[in-house]
Specification:
The chain is mainly alpha-helical. It contains six helices and no strands. α3 packs antiparallel against α4. The N and C termini lie far apart (about 35 Å).
Length: about 160
């Protein structure tokens, strides 16, 4: 949200700092994936995750420049991406159905789009409400992922109640 808000406002230095922090977060998530499913999975995850961030930024640029074609292409690319990402996690973890993962990621994409649209409209109160909604949705991704991981690797999480 900070990166897209800075991009929409034309604040390049702020955007670059926020984008670097966002990428650091992506690296951390990839390391977490690698710690569970192996280094190869973490290495495969990172470029896949970065790809969707690039598409979100493409959408942001389209909104900032009022380029409807760029916005539409970014949204279409993101919808295709959700299916591809939906296939990624079920590969190392059979407890994660492809359709369920794709649906969760699709909802993630839609909540991000809402944040950007509201930021561009200049309604900061609504933008922060949208940010909170998008952040809360991440738990809806994390919870089934955590449940699938503990199911797949019960010996690693012996103290977890099931």
């Amino acid at each position: 949200a900070a990166a897209t808000n800075a991009a929409l406002g034309g604040r390049k230095a702020e955007f670059e700092a926020d984008a670097a922090a966002l990428d650091g977060n992506s690296v951390d998530v990839a390391r977490a994936i690698g710690s569970v499913y192996g280094a190869d999975a973490g290495k495969a995850f990172l470029p896949l995750w970065r790809k969707h961030i690039g598409m979100v930024l493409d959408y942001t640029v389209g909104v900032a420049t009022k380029d409807k074609a760029k916005q539409d292409k970014a949204v279409a690319d993101l919808m295709v991406y959700t299916d591809g990402f939906g296939a990624f996690l079920p590969a190392p973890d059979p407890n994660l159905p492809k359709a369920a993962v794709a649906d969760l990621v699709k909802h993630h994409v839609v909540t991000l789009k809402e944040v950007i649209d509201v930021q561009a409209a200049g309604d900061q109160a609504k933008a922060w409400k949208s940010v909170r909604t998008a952040a809360a949705h991440m738990g809806k991704i994390a919870d089934p992922l955590a449940a699938a991981i503990t199911k797949q690797f019960p010996n690693r999480f012996a103290s977890v109640e099931r």
